[in-house]
């Protein structure tokens, strides 16, 4: 992802947080046509049941397998791709590669591979969770990219593992779950419209031509996750109600003591400086990332990226030593619960005891 200057982000933040996130009761809209969608909270018992599910050992193992130099076209890049594909195929997901060639600065002609995995390849609609799996080319420097984006990749694989049983009911439903692991997010020389987000640009263009984009209800893009005390904001008005679900889930987890090493101030949650998902909106798409080609084609986007960026962004210090697994597991819980609540929305085949 790109930003001309981290201080620009900080200054922009200071002058732009006055807008408050609307309550989720304002309504939920999905897809390019912004169709109404009904979603309810998980019942108290099932919320607790899912919140207590965890497999940090699997999460750490996944991070270890991904946290190697994985520049497009290198053996490390291929190794990570094989690991991601095999991990999901072992869980009986349908996995396909969207492959293409492109000539890039410095490294020349490269072969890229987006990884697209679905629970039900024949579904009519999808909730999409996405991240990128390549690492940045930095001449003379070994860049591992823990937050950028080994941890988000591992979190998605961990979600599939931890919720394996709960996701079974969405293998044959009209609404199902899709994972996209974008390739070539990083610039090879200098971030520009042509030297960046290679995989996202190619896939969005392909799906637009094929008429597939209307099947995407919502694209949730994860990036720069893994360090302690991240702060997230709502960037887009048409997904603000969905962002409010993340606020609500974080509140429920915190109120019941289900957040690891999470310190609540004991005051009204919106004023709690320790929370991750802030009750504020930043009305700008100034952060360029894999969501941009889809956003420009009117696919609704939730961009879960901390502002400001981690201090280790695009430095050799973005390695395993900076990963806070308590924070990572907290975020993983929130995203797991969000995913289930979303999928439970209007699917009549599910067990309605899950709904409040």
TrEMBL record:
Gene3D superfamilies noted in UniProt: Zn peptidases
Signal peptide: 1-19
Protein name stated in the entry: glutaminyl-peptide cyclotransferase
Catalytic activity reported: N-terminal L-glutaminyl-[peptide] = N-terminal 5-oxo-L-prolyl-[peptide] + NH4(+)
Family of the protein in this entry: Belongs to the glutaminyl-peptide cyclotransferase family.
Keyword Transferase: yes
Gene encoding the protein: LOC101890280
Enzyme class: transferase
Record organism: Musca domestica
Domain called Peptidase M28: residue spans: 114-337
EC assignment: 2.3.2.5
Keyword Iron listed: no
This protein's UniProt keywords: Acyltransferase, Signal, Transferase
């Amino acid at each position: 992802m790109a930003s001309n200057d981290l201080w620009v982000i900080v200054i922009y933040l200071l002058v732009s947080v006055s807008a408050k996130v609307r309550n989720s009761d304002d309504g939920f809209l999905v897809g390019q046509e912004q169709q109404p969608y009904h979603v309810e909270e998980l019942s108290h018992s099932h919320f607790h049941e899912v919140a207590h599910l965890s497999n940090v050992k699997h999460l750490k193992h996944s991070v270890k397998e991904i946290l190697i130099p994985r520049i497009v076209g290198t053996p490390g890049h291929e190794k990570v791709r094989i690991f991601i594909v095999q991990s999901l195929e072992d869980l009986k997901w349908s996995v396909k590669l969207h492959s293409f060639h492109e000539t890039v600065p410095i490294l020349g002609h490269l072969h890229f591979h987006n990884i697209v995995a679905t629970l039900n390849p024949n579904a009519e609609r999808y909730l999409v969770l996405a991240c990128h799996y390549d690492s940045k080319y930095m001449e003379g420097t070994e860049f591992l990219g823990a937050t950028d984006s080994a941890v988000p990749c591992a979190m998605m694989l961990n979600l599939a593992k931890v919720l394996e049983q709960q996701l079974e009911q969405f293998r044959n439903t009209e609404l199902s779950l899709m994972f996209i692991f974008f390739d070539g997010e990083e610039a090879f020389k200098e971030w520009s419209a042509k030297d960046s987000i290679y995989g996202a640009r190619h896939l969005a263009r392909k799906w637009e031509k094929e008429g597939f984009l209307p099947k995407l209800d919502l694209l949730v893009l994860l990036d720069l996750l893994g360090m302690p005390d991240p702060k997230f904001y709502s960037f887009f008005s048409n997904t603000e109600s969905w962002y409010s679900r993340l606020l609500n889930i974080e509140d429920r987890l915190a109120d019941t003591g289900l957040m690891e090493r999470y310190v609540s101030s004991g005051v009204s949650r919106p004023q709690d400086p320790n929370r991750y998902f802030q009750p504020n909106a930043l009305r700008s798409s100034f952060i360029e990332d894999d969501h941009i080609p889809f956003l420009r084609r009117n696919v609704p986007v939730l961009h879960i990226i901390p502002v400001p960026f981690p201090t280790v962004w695009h430095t050799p210090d973005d390695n395993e030593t900076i990963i806070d697994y308590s924070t990572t597991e907290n975020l993983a819980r929130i995203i797991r619960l969000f995913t289930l609540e979303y999928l439970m929305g209007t699917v009549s085949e599910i067990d309605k005891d899950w709904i409040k």
